[in-house]
Amino acid sequence: MRPLPSVRRALAAVAVAVLALTLGGCGYGSQRDERSQVAPKGERLSAGTVRIGYFPTLTHATPLVGLREGILQKELGGTRLKAVGFNAGPSAVEALNAGSVDISWIGPSPAVNGYQRAHGENLRIISGAASGGVKFVVDPKKITSPEDVRGKRIATPQKGNTQDVALLHWITGRGWAVDPRTGKGDVSVVRTDAKAVPGAFASGSVDGAWVPEPTASRLVAAGGKVLLDESGLWPDGKFVTANVVVSRKFLDRHPDVVEAVLRGSVRTNAWIAAHPDRSKVAANAALKDLSGSALPADVLDPAWQSVRTTDDPLAATLSAQAEHAVAAGLLKKPDLTGIYDLTLLGKVLRSEGKPPVDAGGPGSR
Hints:
By secondary structure, this protein is of the alpha/beta class. The chain folds into two domains: 27-131 and 238-351, Periplasmic binding protein-like II (D-Maltodextrin-Binding Protein, domain 2, 3-Layer(aba) Sandwich); 134-236, D-Maltodextrin-Binding Protein, domain 2. The protein has helices spanning 5-24, 61-68, 71-76, 89-98, 108-117, 162-173, 197-203, 215-221, 248-253, 255-274, 276-291, 297-305, 315-328, 343-351, and strands at 33-35, 49-54, 80-85, 103-106, 123-132, 134-138, 153-156, 188-191, 208-212, 225-229, 240-247, 307-309. The protein is globular, with a radius of gyration of 21 Å. The model is unreliable at 1-36 (pLDDT under 50). InterPro entries: ABC_SsuA_sub-bd, NrtA/CpmA_ABC-bd_dom. It is found in: Cell inner membrane; Periplasm. This is Sulfate ABC transporter substrate-binding protein. Belongs to the bacterial solute-binding protein SsuA/TauA family. It holds the Pfam family NMT1_2.
């Protein structure tokens, strides 16, 4: 016998609830799915849809602006772009491994960690995206110098993410000890979702945070003080904070789609450089779409100034960050041979009349 309509509706509701719980338990940290502002138009490439991951941070200015302005979708023609938001890199790597996204903007430490765990079988770094845009902001009533950080509670977005590694490296560089697994030690490292950091800072449950923009400028606007800008710790102030990473399977099966996304990325970065004010407005509108509210000028302006978009993956700094993760005890010494595949990026840059990026680094080609 077939169930009665009311019973079928009840069963469907239960199925939806179970599916929601199942997806929620995956731990991908996705916020919501977004569609490109421009509908697919033109000839479809080898894949009908490409799923792209990104974060609601200004270090991901390229996808924020590229999606908002329709630049990425334009390069894809009739292939539909589906964008998925994440809160931190390890969640995006998990989704990439599970096949939930095909390409993602992501920080260097999660990319390295994910590559090592999968023995190089899961992903490739195919382009740079951003440099800078990370600051250590503290409560000036509790911390006035680096020495005052000892014994305090400092937030990072997630265990093992790029800012978490940077803070642990800075702590060990001062001769202090912290258990990388628990975050306990001479400094308490509190792994806190980036969205919750401002509230934790305002309540006093953390005394500072090592975070990307715009969270850093949010804390400053709330009375925090920049103890250090991470760019000051790197030669020439340049260090990778975001790369473009692709599933190896997707790269092998759909190189034309990957090339189109890279062309969109390169052209978006060029558009940002040529239209800084419009780009800032577009990025803020994209953040509003994701979070429900735009950034006020006292947060947006300084945050935007501290981020630099780039096609260069800054490979040497990724190697250094991997060494920092090893020294901090978060990572075994990795074999990064083959983590870079800059072939398609080089092709796109040549077609755009741009010089090739430095392909130096671990196993790039």
